[in-house]
Amino acid sequence: MTVAPANPSPPSNKAALFTVFFVIFIDLLGFGIVLPLLPRYAANLLSPAGIPDHLHGLTTGALFAVFSLMQFVFAPIWGRVSDRIGRRPILLLGLAGSVVFYSLFGFASASILSDGRTAPDVARFALLLMFIARIGAGIAGATISTAQAVIADSTSKEKRAHGMALIGMAFGGGFTFGPLLGGAALIFAPDHPQFAGYFAAGLSLVAWLLAMFKLPETLKRDNELPPRGWLDVRGLYSTLQTPTVGILVLTFFLATFGFAKFESTLSLLTKEIKSASRPDGYTDQDNFWIFTYVGFVFLLAAGYSRQLLKKLPEIKLMRLGVGSMFLGLAGLTAVALSDESALRSIGFFISLALGVTGFAFLTPSSQALISKRSDPNRQGEVLGVNQSFSSLARILGPIVGITLFFVPGTHHVLPYVASAVMLVIVIGLLTRIKRD
User: Which of 4, 24, 181, 204 is the most buried (most CB within 10 A)?
Assistant: First the structure.
């Protein structure tokens, strides 16, 4: 299939760009608040709800997985619908859904007692509501591909990657300050677990109001699209068969898969990073600071990538990002295999920075190239397919990563070795992509 002739490059729409940046940032603050609290809250419901001990890990993992599963299913659907009716109504619908389902999460959390004495019927009902809240939040959050389409609508091809980097900065900001607020909720409101969910819902409401009054419609078409259903498998195949786009989607999938294995095992690895000052590894409270550090590095790297893209083409920044990720994962492998020493902690934080920086460089570059090499009338759909595969990687990554982490006699290095090998394959794929 050949790509349809591109429409003239749109003029930069700064109002849309910065509004969508703040909308994503505020909404992801809510996501970042809930994420570190979810396993703790679930742990206080599982036994009272009658879930057998050997199924606790699987049930908690399912609470995480259903969110990404819904994004996998709905990202291309929302993108396809936004190509037809516009970006603004889809983003407003997604933000409204976040308000509802974060509120439901707060309502479900209200019944949690920290001593585990929650009544069985109440615990079962609360756990069911948490699953519904996670499913709904995943459906609502799948509109991120529509936000990427707003960026594509509002930037010229030359500025596309700069715009996509704004989403990376919004992600980094959300994951920096969200866990901090979640940690504060644990410290200052331990007897009010519902506070986190309601606060996240309030932030999404602020984002909805901002979008309602400040976000313009950015979709412009020169011709009508042929009738298409919400879910079209042929559209998926069409995207993957488009020259270069299929390789880019596969590249981003593999890189995200590798990053998800690192991300999901990080809190497990921190218990293994022992030193004289931390003979038992990093504590749960330390983990909040480590995840904040990861988010802050991602935020800085995403911002710096906008400057690099003024000097480097997207494909070169993608290669630089993959190389940095490889060094970070190799460093984590070395840290896990090293003896306990002061240098071990230093190496750990340097490796984290390299890995996160690499992913921050790769993300906007690949998304910009996918957008630039796609049919302008199918921006939402194509970016939705890419986001869908990214979500699939985030479903599979934790399953594979955690399984590999606990393989006996491996010093917990298999997730990072496997990801590093996968990045070598990614480098091979990148050699097949030509510069514009």
Answer: 204
